[in-house]
Design a protein that fits this description.
The chain folds into 2 domains: 13-57, no CATH class; 61-372, TIM Barrel. Helices cover 36% and strands 19% of the residues. The protein has helices spanning 2-13, 68-73, 93-99, 115-118, 128-139, 154-157, 163-170, 173-181, 212-223, 241-256, 277-288, 306-322, 341-344, 362-372, and strands at residues 23-24, 29-31, 40-41, 45-51, 54-59, 80-85, 107-110, 143-147, 184-189, 228-233, 262-270, 293-302, 326-331. Keywords: Carbohydrate metabolism, Glycosidase, Hydrolase, Polysaccharide degradation, Secreted, Signal, Xylan degradation.
Amino acid sequence: MLRISVALAAFLAFLPVAIGQGQAPLWGQCGGQGWTGPTVCVPGAVCVMENAFFSNCFPSATSSSSGSNTVATTLGGKLYFGTAADNYELNDPAYTAKLNNESLFGQITPRSLRWDATESVQGFFTFDDGDAMVALAQKNVNIATGDFQNILNAHCSALIKHFAVVSLWIFNSEAIEWMTATDAWDVFSEPISDDGSIRPVGYSPSGQGVSFIESVLYAARGADPDAKVYVTSSNMDTPGPVLESMLNEVQHWLAEGVPIDGIGFRSHFTVGGVPSKETLIANYETFTALGIEVAITELDIRGADILQQQTDYQTVISACKAVAGCVGVTLSDFTDKYSSVPAEFGGSGMALPWDYNFIPKPAYDGIIAGFTN
């Protein structure tokens, strides 16, 4: 009788649900619109929302003993692992608890340091939100990366008529305080069109003299010589016109003595669409070979296949780890709760490593593995 009981116990151990405990099995459904079954997963699994109609039990990512920033700066050899953040998110205690966890994040890119957030009307400055973010970074001894994105996009192009406008913004006394409180500035974003041409607003109105991009770089360096100045762009993760044009611009800036310390890769991928590790390494080294650094300044990978997403995050992180001059990685945000991806890419799935409930998804394990292996 004992032998039968042991055999039965061994058999029951392989059953996906603990009978009578009301737990969803590993890989089983645990939620969704109209779902009436168990909503708690078996130990070692976590319920992850894939869409409004289906949540699934995936292996818990909490097995990672060290936080993402700790692993990035030790085993990964990087300066930081960070995230973008917005001020309204700070009203969420669960969000703030994660953001303040230095083992998870060692760098913050505040969206409230963008031009459209500080000078939405020409000549009228609002610094409160930016001050709050910089203070948060200083409190946690984090790196604050100022975000000048959208400076020359459609939102602000009407405001930019000549260099004096930029001078007014950069050399405002309160702006200088920000400059000296930051480690790096993403000074200029998306200066190159998809066909490789420089966007028309990138040059002085007369069409002569110093490029407007160069004027912004000089202004940023003048405000704080110790902060790194970056130019960032998307569509550089694979060889093509944007990568080639950016390389030409950097070579020109370096030859002319224009301040440029790094290139930021804005990496917005789809699950299964991430370039190979070898391709990413080659693209990063295109710039590090010139003596400047690179960073992944925005990273998200959208799609419903969470296990492939884990693999894709590992690929990107491991590529950065393999390049000495790739100094760090910044997420576009860290939780699906505040992700802009569903609104911008409807039906594409959740793109970030933490779910709506701030529980790490398999993607988080991919990040840890990328910095570790």
